Amino acid sequence: MVKIFPTKFQQSLYLLLVVVLLLAMALHVLVNPIPAQLQYLFFGVLVLSTGIPHGAVDHLVEWQTKALLQTKFSAVRFYIAYLLPMVVYGVAWLIFPTLSLYYFLYLSATHFGETDIPLANQNSHLVRLLQISFGVLMLSTILAFHIPQVTVMLSELQTF
User: Fold this and answer.
1) How many other β-carbons are positioned within 10 Å of the β-carbon of residue 57?
2) Longest dimension (CA), the chain
3) What is the average pLDDT value for the chain, to the nearest integer?
């Protein structure tokens, strides 16, 4: 099993991110709405500092993971496993929009947490709780800046 621990630099970045997000949430509460110029500046800094859009190198991550585990990488299998769930999930959104939203929020929180807090002992309940909590913080931050839009979107969903 490959053990991945965040470096001191990564830990510092995570801490900085959490502090910046909490400050941004406080700013949103105190100065509502946040001026568009400040939002664009914040967005620009994030885009410039993160580089390649999220997900653009997933195939390379999978290839590297397979190499570390000394198993064979198949691009065809990767893309089928990568794209098929998206198609199935897209159809589910059409049939069960509310349930699909809940599932999407759960998956997003889990994914953010696993990606941003890659700890070696993935089977630990405490690690999973930490990862999901971080993911919920990330999602809450995103949604908190768009309450009116979120409210409109939620009101348009069909109840199940």
Assistant:
1) 13
2) 53
3) 81
21 inside domain: yes
- Where in the sequence is the domain holding 15, given as residue range(s)? 8-51+96-156
Q: Identify whether the C-beta of residue 133 lies closer than 8 Å to the C-beta of residue 119.
A: no
Among candidates 115, 155, 147, which has minimal Cα distance to 132?
A: 115
Residue 14: inside a domain, yes or no? yes
- Type of residue at 83: L
Our count of domains for the chain comes to 1
**Residue matched to tokens 């348009």:** 156
Give the integer Cα–Cα distance in Å for 32 and 138.
20
- Give pLDDT tens digits for 12-52: 877 887 888 788 888 888 887 778 888 888 877 777 666 55
Say how far apart CA 99 and CA 103 lie, in whole Å: 6
Considering the domain boundaries, does residue 75 fall inside one? no
> Cis omega (within 30 of 0) on the bond before 33?
yes
pLDDT of residue 4: 54
In a domain, 69, yes or no: no
